[in-house]
Structure to design on (364 residues):
């Protein structure tokens, strides 16, 4: 029993405790606020007819899981980079703008937009995103440059590259197929980006189940030298983590472009880098590398989006939202820090030990 209680705080559930408790507290806050104001519209989910005449789900909760889709996808890839390299890629927003620009560039060729053309456009977006990701990965894995410094290059010039791809224009892409990717598929009431997140999560789960990537990534992140001595190519694992992030960047960029129906290199997923890193941190993953949980990062993304929607529901101005988010996120990150976790673990251990001693005395 003692080992079981210890595992709650040190095992997989313990890693998910902070993000799960965080999102529950935010929902509880909205519930209490709704009961006080006698307005529980925050939790209402309705089936409404959209502009295309399709019946779709609508409400704040739907907005949360839909709006966090790009962030959740990026957080999956960022988790691998963080785990393997002990650092973060701060260029994911700029890289997504590049991928989105390439997607639009291919889609706009010719007169009509077919399903095959959209697929080719996505593959082109994946190729260019993986190319730039491999560039970042080479700097980190081969030249041993700290990830944040290595990716600062693309962070600085990435949106300019996205601007050049389409000659400085912001072309629109009007197509039922693209609208379906960014909003709803006719006849399906669930937002398509939410379905894409589920598919991506399943793919990661299957890859981890049928390969040793998860184990190798954690081994390299914990101790790269020991991993090499055990026959693991740490350079390849780090490079692979960046390339996988590149695929996630392409998916996020495609969703972002499909939502808007155009490419705006200056605003597409702007400032998403910090939210992505925070999602990984809130998810209980060590930013210094090592053990990780993709599910924690996904929940972390929804925590951030829930906080954002909550602030907007409270009529907080868009200029003040970032300040409020910063305060709450600092609190969450501090609570989830190793120091606080260690202190809490010792406190709980003493509590259970004390109760056990009282129980023994009572039995005597």
């Amino acid at each position: 029993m003692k080992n079981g209680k210890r595992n709650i705080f040190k095992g997989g559930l313990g890693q998910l405790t902070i993000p799960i408790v965080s999102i529950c507290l935010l929902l509880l806050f909205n519930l209490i606020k709704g009961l006080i104001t006698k307005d529980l519209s925050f939790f209402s989910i309705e089936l409404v007819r959209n502009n295309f005449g399709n019946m779709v789900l609508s409400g704040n909760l739907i907005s949360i899981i839909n709006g966090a889709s790009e962030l959740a996808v990026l957080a999956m890839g960022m988790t691998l980079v963080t785990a393997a390299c002990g650092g973060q890629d701060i260029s994911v927003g700029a890289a997504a703008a590049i991928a989105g620009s390439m997607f639009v560039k291919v889609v706009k060729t010719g007169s009509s937009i077919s399903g095959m053309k959209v697929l080719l456009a996505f593959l082109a977006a994946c190729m260019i995103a993986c190319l730039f990701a491999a560039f970042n990965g080479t700097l980190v894995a081969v030249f041993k440059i700290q990830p944040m410094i290595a990716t600062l290059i693309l962070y600085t010039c990435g949106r300019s590259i996205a601007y050049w791809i389409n000659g400085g224009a912001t072309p629109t892409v009007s197509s039922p197929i693209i609208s379906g990717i960014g909003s709803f598929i006719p006849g399906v009431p669930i937002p398509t980006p939410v379905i894409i997140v589920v598919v991506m999560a399943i793919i990661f789960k299957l890859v981890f189940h049928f390969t040793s990537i998860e184990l190798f990534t954690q081994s390299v992140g914990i101790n790269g030298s020991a991993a090499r001595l055990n026959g693991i190519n740490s350079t390849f694992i780090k490079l692979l983590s960046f390339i996988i992030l590149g695929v996630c960047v392409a998916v996020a960029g495609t969703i972002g472009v499909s939502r808007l129906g155009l490419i705006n290199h200056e605003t597409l997923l702007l400032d998403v880098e910090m939210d992505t890193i925070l999602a990984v941190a809130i998810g209980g993953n060590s930013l210094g590398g090592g053990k990780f949980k993709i599910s924690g990062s996904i929940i972390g993304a929804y925590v951030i989006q829930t906080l954002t929607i909550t602030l907007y529901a409270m009529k907080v101005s868009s200029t003040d939202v970032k300040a409020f988010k910063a305060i709450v996120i600092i609190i969450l990150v501090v609570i989830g820090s190793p120091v606080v976790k260690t202190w809490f673990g010792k406190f709980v251990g003493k509590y259970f030990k004390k109760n056990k001693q009282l129980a023994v005395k009572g039995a005597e």
Remarks:
- The mean pLDDT is 89.
